[in-house]
Design goal:
Order of helices and strands: EEEEH
Number of helices: 1
Largest sheet: 4 strands, antiparallel
Mean pLDDT: 85
Structural class: mainly beta
Low-confidence stretches: none
Strand order of the largest sheet: 1-2-3-4
Distance between the termini: 48 Å
């Protein structure tokens, strides 16, 4: 019987192939801390004083569309599409 992998206190990052501005992260990912899912955003930065590169990041709760946004997005979709 295969042992189940424990994802607790681990993370994964992927290169952000859809980056269009410096405000968007260079890498995005997910992590699990104490059994709770989190989102990770990471930027490659350069220190002004030394020129050395480093990573800067943010950890936040996963994005969840609000019911208000879902209603607006749902209103734009129609079943009368001619294809």
């Amino acid at each position: 019987m295969a042992e189940q992998y424990d994802n607790n206190n681990t993370f994964t990052l992927w290169k952000n192939d859809r980056k269009e501005s410096d405000a968007q992260p260079d890498y995005r990912g997910v992590m699990q801390v104490d059994g709770k899912d989190k989102e990770i955003a990471c930027w490659i930065r350069e220190a002004k004083a030394t020129g050395k590169k480093f990573l800067s990041g943010r950890i936040q709760e996963p994005y969840k569309a609000s019911s208000d946004n879902a209603a607006v997005e749902g209103a734009a979709v129609s079943d009368d599409v001619p294809f």
